[in-house]
Amino acid sequence: MDKRILGLHHITAIADNAKRNVDFYTKVLGLRMVKKTVNFDDPGTYHFYYGNEEGTPGTILTFFPWEGIGKGRNGTGMATEISYSVPAGSLDFWTERFKTMGVETGERTERFGEIYLPFSDPDGLALTLVHPATGDNRAGRDANGITKEEATRGFHGVCLSLEEIEKTAEILTDVFGYTLFKQEGNRYRFSTDAIATAGNIDLLELPDGKRGVNTAGTNHHIAFRVKDEKIQMEFREKILARGLNITHQIDRDYFFSLYFREPGGVLFEIATDNPGFTVDEPQGELGTHLKLPKKFESARTEIEASLPLLN
Ligand code: ZN
To answer: Which residue, 36, 60, 189, 249, could crosslink 181 as a Cys pair with Cβ 3.0–4.6 Å?
Structure first.
């Protein structure tokens, strides 16, 4: 059981303005800033992690805000919609809140017997709220006019847009242990029973779809969750055995990572639960300090001066 893929670990997207991104996810959506750090490959850029109170994998949405990068476009070869789980009966609260706060929303739609409320973040990133048919026992948090009875619980799933789904589906089923739950038109839902939440991946087949443009308002990659780096390396072998390229194990300070591009073009990551976000600041202070990887600590003054203002 513990050796399986445990649903989603995190999703990483691209934003433009950093302050606008923080304001939206912490104040409008009520997520916790779980970690405020920099892009380990580009320390003049922030890397924000938003999630639940504890920073649990399966609730973590992260952003690289690149000022002036310009608006991207959703398309094939990328993750094109993120679904957050919310409590039963809370969609009216969210509709009203989004209206009051000027958030762009779409028409509610039904998929697989669940009602989805689509909305966009200020960069146009496509998100939905949904009450999962299977329920969700994760705790929400009180934040800025949102009570626990309405608060988001973490991910329900993510949708990938693909020209053709077959080879991506094979990775999900043959390597990651997902099974096809149901099909509705060109949407195929794959789920895992290894975990009760954040376990859905929708594959949307768009044979004539345009390729996406991966800048602001689009997703950069999705990360699948494993318990530790030993199990992670077993998945590395399985990916290599399929003839795909995969990186070596990379230490991201809060988890260990492997990256590979699945055959449909989406960048997949496999990330570990350990060591977790409390490795460099206590639970109660998560996200309140600018944390830098060790290699950049000696340049802290210059880095802090170069980062955009958030207040
Ligand atoms: Zn990642």
So the answer is: 189
